[in-house]
Amino acid sequence: MSARLSAEQTIRLTPEETKALWEAASDLTRSEDVAELDADGVTELACALTPAFPTRLLRALHRHRRGAGHDALLVSGLLPADQEWGPGPRGSAEPLTGPAQAAALCLLGVSLQLGEPFTFSTFYSGRLVQHVVPVPSMEHTQTSESSSGMLDWHVEDGFSPDRCDHFGLLCLRGEAAAHTRFVSARDLELPDEVREVLSRPVFLMEPDTAHEMADRSPTATAVLWGPAEAPEICYDAHYLGPAGRPDGEEARALRRLAAELDAKRVEHALAPGELLLLDNRRTVHARTPFQARNDGTDRWLLRTMICSSLPRFREHGVRVWPSPHGAVGAGRYGGTGAAPHGATTSGDGAR
Fold first, then answer.
1. What residues does each domain of the chain span?
2. Which of 64, 65, 120, 191 could form a disulfide with 73 if both were Cys (CB 3.0 to 4.6 A apart)?
3. Nearest to residue 235, comparing CAs of 172, 188, 180?
């Protein structure tokens, strides 16, 4: 039996607040040719939306950033529910056009309250804001372009120590059958001996196929570590496996974790105008199957990733980062893809 988002995990804008924000975002798209801006340019443009955010939204975002909530925040009414979007894009890397440009600015404006929006050059052509839409022939893949198949439990870019700290999913067009699921690591009830096994950096995580990379060798990582009141998690039901025997204690610990994720899941079918923010260091997420029509009226989300560490963001020097493979950005953890047992990355740094 799945749970639902709590009142503490949700905030709803009033119709007046939604209208004022949408007018401000639309005005910005008329002042600049968003399609011609690079990643830095569109982010700087989105900064101008901050005065249009209600104070209570800014406070809720601050609580979410410092981890005072439940690792998830649903913002309802960020976009007008009756907005006409036109036909959806054909793929994740399509350019932003029409009113989707104003929606992207709203997404980036909120994201800037949590850190710096960024992406990888290997991920959907390096688009800072990606479309999340079903794509023909991708129905059963483990990517956000899937539909008929279950998108299994995962964190974003778990194979990389430079994975995002937070990410946002903004719904333009919903789908009742497509439920976004998530579980916070702090809600997992696991025996101490299972936690100890999962804290060892001996599990192997392969890069997911959403990234166009030549080097697809796995990186070693721990799965669950940190203080019990705020543990971190790095998990992927499809790309993560034990380094040892398939019937060994690491494999048994993963099976126990998988069952606990299913038992503790929270789920929500995103509706138009809703933005779901998840802490990528402390939650895992998934999506239930749905039937795509492939006629331009399918489920349509916008997504961006967020780095909450300014020092780590500055290390890269650009907003579109190079290959996220562990060998590229593994200086702090010696290439393991996770902090050493007992360490924590949130507040120090973050398919």
1. 7-321
2. 64
3. 188
Work out the end-to-end distance of the chain between its first and last CA atoms, rounded to an integer number of angstroms: 26
- C-alpha–C-alpha distance, residues 302 and 107, integer Å: 8
Helix axes 100-111, 15-31, angle to 10 degrees: 110
3-state secondary structure of 3: strand
Please give the Cα distance from 237 to 133 (Å, whole number): 22
Would you state the pLDDT for residue 241?
95
Q: In whole angstroms, what is the distance from residue 17 CA to residue 13 CA?
A: 6
Helix extents (H) in the chain: 15-31, 39-47, 55-65, 100-111, 192-198, 249-263, 310-316
Q: What is the DSSP string of 67-125?
A: T-S-SEEEEESSS-TT----SPPSSTTPPP-TTHHHHHHHHHHHHTTTSEEEEETTBGG
pLDDT reported for residue 96:
95
Q: Do the beta carbons of residue 298 and residue 292 sit within 8 Å? A: yes
Q: Tens of pLDDT along 220-278?
A: 999 999 998 899 999 999 999 998 888 899 999 999 999 999 999 999 999 999 999 99
pLDDT of residue 142: 87
Burial of 288 (0-12, 13-18, 19+ CB in 10 A): middle
Beta-carbon contacts of 91 under 8 Å, excluding residues fewer than 6 positions away, are 131, 133, 135, 145
| Cβ(179)–Cβ(290) below 8 Å | no
- Cα separation of 330 and 176, whole Å? 40
The backbone torsions φ and ψ at residue 148, rounded to the nearest 5 degrees and listed phi first, read: -65, -30
CATH code of the domain occupying 7-321: 3.60.130.10
